[in-house]
Design goal:
The structure is a single chain. Helix content is 40%, strand content 18%. The strands form two sheets. The protein has an eight-stranded mixed sheet with strand order 1-2-4-3-7-8-9-10, sandwiched between helices. With 279 residues, it is an alpha/beta fold. The radius of gyration is 32 Å and the shape is globular.
């Protein structure tokens, strides 16, 4: 074989090797540049609706071990979990009365839980209920909440509750605001007493998870203290409102309830667990 022929074969072989290397490199490059499979999009399907909430009555009695039974107003027909409103009545009152009034104010969109409290005497010897110590109130609330969740299970929404209180119940509500702000994130009180709220308590509530606080007054005696409490709450950076309902007296009657209804809408307007108000 001549030298020219041998050189020609070597050149061809080198060319083939170069071509093979180039093809191999392109294949590897294409594999590295190939986009990763797209992640599956999250399901946009809504959570399945619950069966319509049923109960023997809109007002149901709950047994609370160690205490008198509580009442709960039930959002009958609800097909999704509903939030809880805890209603503390006045000093010579009845829990079922509180449940009826606050169910109207909330437009029956939540469970309205009304603890009984302790027996006291009313006018004419009629049976009425007030409150014992703060510790007793807290234990009764825990028992009542446990009974509510056991009875209505999946229809009860998780998360914080709205706390509403009238007259003698107010000081207990404001103390609960101090001790458990994230759970009692929204509070509405009707009437107030001197020395049951302070700038320090307002600051604690704001820092620890309290969201909104509404003071409603309908009598001259509680107007001055509520105005001061509103200043404390605003100074702490809380979303707060002072609603003067006029001189209707320290009562929770139909006139006060009508005036409170739009105020309650403000209180829970940022809580998506409440269905849109029926108007």
């Amino acid at each position: 074989m001549s030298d020219d022929s041998q050189r020609q074969r070597i050149v061809v072989a080198l060319a083939l090797l170069t071509l093979a290397a180039s093809i191999y490199g392109l294949v590897r490059l294409s594999r590295h540049q190939r986009p990763a499979p797209a992640a599956a999009a999250p399901s946009s399907k809504p959570a399945p609706a619950l069966p319509p909430l049923a109960a023997e009555s809109w007002l149901t009695e709950l047994e609370v071990p160690g205490f008198g039974s509580s009442y709960v107003a039930v959002p009958i027909g609800a097909r999704e979990p509903r939030p809880i409103v805890i209603a503390l009545h006045g000093g010579a009152d009845r829990p079922e009365w509180a449940c009826g009034t606050w169910t109207g104010i909330t437009k029956a969109r939540a469970f309205v839980l009304c603890p009984r409290g302790v027996e006291t005497s009313g006018s004419g010897g009629a049976l009425r209920y007030g409150w014992g110590s703060q510790a007793e109130v807290e234990r009764e609330l825990r028992g009542a909440l446990k009974a509510l969740k056991a009875r209505f299970a999946e229809h009860v929404a998780s998360g914080p509750v709205t706390l509403v209180a009238f007259a003698a119940g107010v000081k207990y509500a404001l103390e609960l605001a101090r001790t458990e702000p994230p759970f009692f994130a929204r509070i509405l009180v009707v009437g107030s007493e001197p020395d049951t709220w302070s700038a320090g308590r307002a600051a604690v509530y704001a820092r620890a998870g309290g969201k909104r606080l509404l003071f409603a007054v309908s009598d001259p005696a509680s107007r001055a203290s509520s105005s001061t409490y509103w200043v404390f709450a605003r100074g702490a950076g809380l979303e707060t409102k002072l609603s003067d309902l006029g001189d209707l007296g320290l009562v929770l009657d139909a006139a006060v309830a009508r005036a409170l209804t739009p105020q309650f809408e403000w209180l829970v307007s940022d809580d998506p667990r409440y269905p849109k108000s029926p108007g």
